[in-house]
Write a structure and sequence with these properties.
alpha+beta
Length: 79
């Protein structure tokens, strides 16, 4: 099994319809969904964070890479 893991669920993620810890039997399907999730998170969320997909063992981890200079916050414990 290949799992998609969102490393840190910000407020925008929690309010979205996206799910964490999604499993696929196909590595290719998991990668495609992880990349689609990253695109959705980058384009539809508040813009406070950038996201990246990293392969770790048989999992694809979506993590925040850095904060952008924006006012306001998504409410997910921004630093």
């Amino acid at each position: 099994m290949h799992k998609i893991i969102v490393e840190q669920e910000c407020g925008c993620f929690k309010r979205s319809d996206l799910e964490n810890y999604v499993e696929h039997t196909s590595k290719e399907d998991a990668l495609i969904q992880a990349l689609n999730m990253k695109t959705t998170m980058s384009s539809d969320f508040c813009g406070k964070h950038d996201f990246q997909v990293v392969e770790e063992a048989s999992n694809f981890v979506i993590s925040m890479v850095q904060e952008q200079a924006h006012s306001g916050c998504c409410g997910g414990g921004c630093h």
